[in-house]
Structures are given as structure tokens and as C-alpha cells.
């Protein structure tokens, strides 16, 4: 029997990682369908995949046959169909601040260093690997500065006080990206604390890139 | 007496434009505070502005003294504090699809050609004006293709059927950007129709860049 939830994901995609965290926090079982963004010219470009995601991006969540793209849209949707535990607060202003934190990552920095942008840097400006890495590091640090400033007065164990919210689903993958590009977290005491706490929570650990079936680390 | 709503905005910022449309659609009066992103080294970098927006971006909406950044967070907030007319549908899946359309613009393409990215292209890769314009055009076209594919089976007079939604607040400013960079809308029949309809609706016209007090066109 087909699962109620199917997730098209790439282990290293931080947008996929956000949705995996949300699914785990809500204890929602799902079928994992890997979409390799590099192999075979990018599996997101197949005709079959374009039918579920016309933007040819991961993740796509399929719920009872209905596809949805964009991590924020998916997590907001999950909060409505499986409300416990809530990831967006009820209060309008608290809720909006959680979305603001999500967007600092989602629209503010992560798009600037995804694969298709790095490809275009190479194609248009002849940027080599080290130039592309420096570009990525620039935006990761930009994001960390914004997040530290925004979250310092708001965070407790998690981004907003001691309660996990959608913001944690966005911020933790950003910090994993920082790790991957050897950006030090030391100048950011709030982010360091959030990272340490999340590292001990199974929903975050199970969602991490290296724990996915399509990771080269998973053997 | 201070207004209930204050909007920090830059006439040409498409994220500010989205929020101006939403405020107009809901008939919410607001104080307009221009933040010039180029003059004086960028007015978004002043200490005063950083207090309302730690990411140093426009727009910021201040409601009864409480600041909020990020266009999607602001429009979702407005939909809660001033629910009529609703910009996000009640139904969970319809709502998520509206957010998905917003994000195709908000995180999918617009961040890739904003001012700070173009500045870094110049600084890191010595990109001249024509190289930066070609970069911008690439992403505007990328967004138009994604939007046309996603919206064609969903749109009527507006992005989702004949009812205005938050998606229209995001898509119309994207089409205005296309105009500015002389990207032809002709290959996109759905987007052409949406643009023609919105051009006759006062809430969209009043929100356009050239209609703002800080536009050089406003004399």
C-alpha cells in the first residue's frame, strides 16, 4: 500500500532537511524517494519529476497523491493536517516572527548558494571551485549574523524560547551548511547554544544529511 | 497621533511592493517611510533602522509599535489582524499552494538579483553593468517559466481562479521587474493575462514603484 506521505528529497538539500525535521518532530512516517541533483544530469529534470514539481526542485511532499513544493509551504501544511506538536504559534505576532526567522534563511541567504546559482557563477564568470566556495561562505556568514542578531533576544533552548518551532527547522540546516563549509560558529553564542541542544534531539539527528539513505555515508 | 501601521519601504523594492499591494487590498491606511537603499551608503544600514530590522532590509511593517520584517511574514500577519479580504485560503492544501506560488518568487528567484547580490558579483567577479543585467534577466526568466507552468492550470483572472490571493502580491511585482529589464512577457500567456487584469485594479496600481513618494517619477 502506498504511504500517506511521500517525500522527494536529496540528502544534502537543506530545504529537504527542513521538511525531514518537521516530519520527524510530528512523528509522521513517510516514504523517502531520493532525487539526485547531480547524477544523470540532475534527476530533478526528468519528465516524471517535473510532473510533481514544475520548478524542478526538492523537496516535494506528496500527501495522499497531492504534491506540494517549497519547504515553508510544506511545513505550514503539515502544521494544519497534523497539528501536534504545533510548529507555528497561534498568536499572530509570534507566528509572524517565526516566519520572519524562517525567511531569513529561506529567502535571505540559502537561495544564494544553491546548486543552480553556483553553476551560473561558473558559466558566466568562470568562477572556480574556490571562488564558488568563498561566495557560499559569504552568504552563510551573512545569514548567521542576521540570525544571531534576530534570535539573541528571543531564543532559549530553541529559536523562540524553549519550545521548538518551524524556525528551528530552518536554522539548524543552515548551521549544518556552515559546518560543511568550515564556517566557525564561535562568534555566535545564541546559534552555538541552539546547535548543541538540537544535536541531542532525535528528530534533528535522524533528519541530518548523513543519516539519509541516499547519502554516501549511509552504508 | 502615530498611525496604527507604518511601512518602511523603498519604491523599487519588489518585497516592499508586495506588502503595499496587500495593505491596499485590505484598505489599510499606513504611514509611508522611505528607506533609500543607495543614498548615503544605504539608509538601511543606519543604527536607527537596524533597530526595526536587524537584517537591514526593506520592507518593515510596524504595527502599534511592533516591527516585522519579511514580506511573506508581514502578509500572513495582515491576514490575521485584518482578515478581509482573505489573501490566504482557509483550506490547508489550497493555502499551501498559494504559499508555494509566493515562494517561487520570494525564495526561488527574487533574492538572486537583489542589490547586495549584484554588488557582490561586481566585487568578486568584476562583473560590469551588462553582466549584472544579464544575470538578473536570467533569473527573471527562470521565475517566469516556473510561474507559467505552475499557474497555467490554476489561474483565472488571478493566480488562483478569479479570487485575488497573496500569490498575486508576489507575482505582479515580479512581472514589473521583467518590464524594467525588458524581458518579454509574450511567451507566457497566463502571466500576460494576470498582468492585464491587475493593471486595472487600483490596489495594484497605487502600490507600483512609480506611484510611491520616494520615486523620482513622483513629482
How would you characterize the overall build of this protein?
The structure is a homodimer of 219-residue chains. The two termini of chain A are 27 Å apart. In chain A, helix 1 (14-25) runs parallel beside helix 3 (71-81) and helix 7 (166-180) crosses helix 8 (189-198). Chain A has a 4-stranded mixed beta sheet with strand order 2-1-3-4, covered by helices on one side. Chain A has helices at 14-25, 47-52, 71-81, 92-106, 115-125, 129-151, 166-180, 189-198, 202-207; strands at 5-9, 31-34, 60-63, 66-69. The longest helix of chain A has 23 residues, at 129-151. In chain A, 50% of the residues lie in helices and 8% in strands. Chain A is built from 9 helices and 4 strands, in the order βαβαββααααααα. With 219 residues, chain A is of the alpha+beta class. Chain A binds chain B through residues 54-55, 57, 63, 66, 68-70, 72-74, 76-77, 80-81, 92-93, 95-97, 99-100, 103-104, 106-112, 117, 120-121, 124-125, 127, 131, 134-135, 138, 146, 149-150, and chain B through 54-55, 57, 63, 66, 68-70, 72-74, 76-77, 80-81, 92-93, 95-97, 99-100, 103-104, 106-112, 117, 120-121, 124-125, 127, 131, 134-135, 138, 146, 149-150.
